[in-house]
Design goal:
alpha/beta, Rossmann fold, 8-stranded mixed β-sheet
C-alpha cells in the first residue's frame, strides 16, 4: 500500500480532518430524505468507520458491510447496540436474502467501484424484494470547479465520475431516482452527487 493510500485511508482523516477542511458534508440533508428509520432494517454498504450510522434516526436492525478492516476497527469503538452488526466482507445476494433489508445506505461507495462492479451492486440491490429505498452520496466532477475536481482526482476512490456517468449507472440498475442533486460541502469547496432511489 502506498504512503498516500495509508494516509488518506486512515479513518481519522475521513472522520475529522477532511470534513473539518470542507466545513462538513451534505450527509445530514441526504439522510433527512430517509425520514424516520426507526422501523427499518438498514444495510450500509461501504460503512467505513460509521459516518452514515451516526446520521440515522434509529433502526430495527443495522448491518454495516465493508472490506476495510481498519475502518471497521474504528467503527467497533462506538457503543453499538445489540441490533447493530458489522461485517468485514462484500455484500452478496445471500446476505440480502438473510437480512431482508428495507433500506440501503451507500455513502461514498460508488466512486470506489469501476463501472461493472458498481452496476452489479446497484442491480443486486434494486432486485432485492424487501428493499424500498436507498441513498447514495459520492464526490462528483463538475466542469469549471477546479478545486473540487482536484479533490476528486486526489480521492482514495479511483472512480469519481461526473453527474452524467453516475446517472447512467442508476438508469440501468432498476432503481427509480426520486431525488438526484449535486450538493456542496459546508464551505462550498467540494461537491457531491446525492440520490434518493426507490425500487
Amino acid at each position: 500500500m502506498s504512503l498516500y493510500n495509508r494516509l488518506v485511508g486512515a479513518p481519522w482523516i475521513y472522520e475529522r480532518l477532511r470534513l473539518a477542511l470542507l466545513g462538513g458534508g451534505p450527509a445530514a440533508e441526504v439522510f433527512g430524505w430517509l425520514g424516520d428509520t426507526r422501523g427499518d432494517v438498514i444495510i450500509d454498504v461501504g460503512c467505513g468507520a460509521g459516518l452514515g450510522y451516526d446520521r440515522l434516526t434509529g433502526f430495527a436492525e443495522y448491518h454495516g458491510f465493508d472490506t476495510d478492516a481498519r475502518a471497521l476497527e474504528r467503527f467497533r469503538q462506538k457503543p453499538l447496540p445489540e441490533n447493530a452488526h458489522l461485517h468485514n466482507a462484500e455484500i452478496i445476494p445471500a446476505d440480502l436474502n438473510r437480512i431482508k433489508p428495507t433500506m440501503t445506505v451507500m455513502t461514498g461507495i460508488l466512486h470506489h467501484l469501476p463501472d461493472a462492479a458498481a452496476a452489479r451492486l446497484l442491480v443486486m440491490l434494486a432486485q432485492c424484494p424487501s428493499l424500498s429505498c436507498a441513498v447514495t452520496l459520492d464526490p462528483v466532477y463538475i466542469e469549471g470547479k477546479a478545486f473540487n475536481n482536484l479533490l476528486c482526482r486526489l480521492d482514495r476512490g479511483r472512480f469519481v465520475r461526473d453527474r452524467d456517468a453516475y446517472e447512467a449507472l442508476i438508469d440501468k440498475s432498476g432503481f427509480k431516482p426520486v431525488k438526484a442533486e449535486v450538493l456542496p460541502s459546508g464551505n462550498g469547496a467540494a461537491f457531491y452527487f446525492c440520490t434518493l432511489l426507490e425500487t
